[in-house]
Amino acid sequence: MKLTDRLTNKLKHAEHIVFLTGAGISAESGVPTFRGNEGLWRKFSPAELANFSAFMQNPDLVWEWYEYRRHIVREALPNPGHIAIKNFEEVFPKVTVITQNVDNLHTRAGSSVINELHGNIERNYCIRCKKRYDYIVFERSEDSPRCECGGLIRPDVVWFGEELPHDIFKNSENACRSADVFFMIGTSGVVFPAAALPYTARGEGAYLIEINIESTDLSQIADEHFFAPAGVVLPEMLEMIRTLRQ
Ligand code: BJW
Ligand code: ZN
């Protein structure tokens, strides 16, 4: 890998690095992405399952999908991409992770500042009284879990048509405003408002780097691209940065 003079110069002087990650950062840990053929579970697209009316119509089906995914993420391990992001903290004074993922892998890799835009798959809450239930184990043969109040329990994730957690989104926007270098990693950039964050960063002068195995809706605004797996690009780039900033 070779860094351009411009990127070398940005990385040499940067103080605040922001990472916006999507499902692609966890693909090398064996967690399926959402879009493309790989994203289909049975015959359903994420859009058909990740919304409140699908849950109310068929809570057992939606629970089964989440239980299938929980099983995958509990078995998965952070990969060299997550670990490199954590280790950027050894080189830069400030590193912020903004993730659309619900899989906990940035936390398990040890990153210090993580904004989970779309919730976390290990948390749940009652739709009636809002009581929290963490780490439920749901058996496929069972009916969807219910709260002691009788209400249905749902995963604490953000579905289509739902608002993102307000403070987390505000903090993310603020991070974008002070980013020197902004990485967009493994996201198709089609889901809003997460996909608007790179525009906020760029508007305030951040240098935008995309790492993805293919071009995306965000490619047009990136200053530079690395079209290769994140778990390959990030560790290699970090080693080059260590030399630069010695
Ligand atoms: C690799 C790789 C490797 C593979 N290395 N790369 C403005 C315009 C248009 C629409 C809207 C808009 N504002 C709001 C909307 C509606 C909607 C939306 O955006 N729809 C679009 C799809 C059209 N947004 C919402 O509804 C949001 N809420 C909202 O706006 O509230 C305000 C409001 C309220 C009421 C009424 C109206 C407005 C909420 C969005 C919630 C998204 N939820 C999900 C599910 C989360 C829970 C769960 O996990 O189950 O979030 S959907 C799903 O998509 C998930 C993801 O976080 C999200 C993004 O996907 P991501 O991460 O980009 O994954 P992929 O699969 O798309 O891409 C993977 C990428 O990795 C690919 O590019 C690969 O090439 C790459 N890759 N291997 C590097 N090794
Ligand atoms: Zn309840």
Q: How many individual β-strands? A: 9
> Ions, cofactors, ligands: which are bound?
ligand BJW, zinc ion
What structural class do helix, strand and pairing data support? Answer: alpha/beta
Measure the end-to-end span: 19 Å
Average pLDDT level: 95
Order of H and E elements: HEHHHHHEHEEEEHEHEEH
- Beta-strand level of the residues, as a percent range? 15-25%
Radius of gyration, Cα only, in angstroms?
A: 19 Å
Shape: elongated
Low-confidence stretches: none
Sheet with the most strands: spatial strand order = 3-2-1-7-8-9
Largest sheet: 6 strands, parallel
The total count of helices amounts to: 10
Helix fraction, binned, reads 25-40%
Topology of this structure?
Blueprint lengths: L4 H9 L2 E6 L2 H4 L18 H4 L2 H6 L1 H17 L4 H8 L6 E6 L5 H5 L4 E3 L2 E8 L5 E3 L18 E5 L8 H13 L2 E5 L11 H7 L3 E6 L11 E4 L2 H15 L2
Helix pairs in contact: 6-10, 8-9
Bound molecules: ligand BJW and zinc ion.
The site of zinc ion (ZN) has 7 residues, from loops.
